[in-house]
Design goal:
Blueprint (H helix, E strand, L loop, with lengths): L5 E5 L4 H12 L3 E6 L12 E4 L5 H10 L7 E4 L16 H22 L9 E5 L15 H15 L2 H5 L4 E6 L16 H15 L5 E5 L8
Parallel strand pairs: 1-2, 1-4, 2-3, 4-5, 5-6, 6-7
This protein binds NADP nicotinamide-adenine-dinucleotide phosphate.
NADP nicotinamide-adenine-dinucleotide phosphate binds next to helix 1.
């Protein structure tokens, strides 16, 4: 990966997604990114913004059609939600649960699978944003259980993409960004968006060409599933 590298970031209107867009643009990458509405005011001028709600199959297909012919070095599915604030499975409505799992689990994997033909063979990296909370080892007390379960299921369905990514020697990453100061992470989080996304960007570049499926954090630690 070099100055002429290109990336597609899905769910980049704010927070960590926008941070990754800024990091890559700052390193000279050509970046395409998606939001559900208008493009962010503080986006680097060179970024190509497209519209997509990952839960909308028609919008995902339109996105794929618009990007036809592109070959990206990196496709990063970042979009995610926290779910109901109480995080209680017994209190959550069916709609809450459906919405959480569609956004955090099923739609990211559908999106990744549909966009995979746009990833460069050999050196291409497909990354999906997960959380350390998804790990039974790292989160043995099931903190934030609904959110954590949605990301644990995401990790398993991401593993389901491995056979397809191996056909072109892509590298598949499940990435934990750290605890980050965003709308989701809150003000008490330990990392700034810049610290997390600088690390994530370096990791993506370091893992290119390695192949396989890896659960890593922003600083390169390998996490237990
Ligand atoms: N912050 C943390 O400490 C932390 C820790 C571990 C993992 N993560 C994960 O990191 C990712 C980014 O989190 P964040 O902290 O940056 O959260 P955030 O500030 O709340 O941003 C979430 C992003 O996801 C987008 N999004 C949500 N639903 C979407 C949908 N249906 N279609 C397309 N885009 C959608 C949002 O777009 P809109 O602006 O349109 O809502 C926004 O751009 C998430 O997957 C999150 O689970 C975060």
């Amino acid at each position: 990966m070099n100055m002429s590298s290109s990336a597609l970031i899905i769910g980049a209107s704010r927070g960590i997604g926008l941070g990754i867009v800024k990091q890559l643009s700052g390193r000279g990458w050509q970046v395409a990114a998606t939001s559900r509405g208008t493009s962010p005011k503080d986006s680097p001028a060179s970024v190509k913004w497209l519209t997509a709600d990952i839960n909308d199959q028609v919008q995902r297909q339109a996105l794929k059609d618009q990007l036809s012919g592109h070959q990206f070095d990196l496709i990063f599915i970042n979009a995610g939600v926290y779910g109901p604030a109480h995080q209680e499975v017994t209190q959550a409505s069916d709609h809450d649960i459906f919405s959480l799992f569609m956004t955090n689990t099923f739609s990211p994997v559908r999106c990744a699978s549909e966009l995979l033909p746009l990833l460069k063979p050999q050196t291409g990296v497909l990354a999906l944003m997960t959380s350390q909370l998804a790990s039974l080892n790292e989160n043995s007390s099931a903190t934030y259980p609904l959110y954590a379960a949605s990301k644990a299921a995401l990790n398993m369905l991401t593993r389901g993409l491995l056979s397809e990514t191996q056909l072109k020697n892509h590298t598949l990453l499940s990435v934990h960004p750290g605890w980050v100061q965003t709308d989701m992470g809150g003000k008490n989080a330990t990392l700034t968006i810049e610290e997390s996304t600088d690390g994530i960007t370096k990791q993506v570049m370091a893992w290119s060409g390695k192949g396989g499926h890896h659960f890593i954090d922003y600083s390169g630690n390998i996490l237990k599933w």
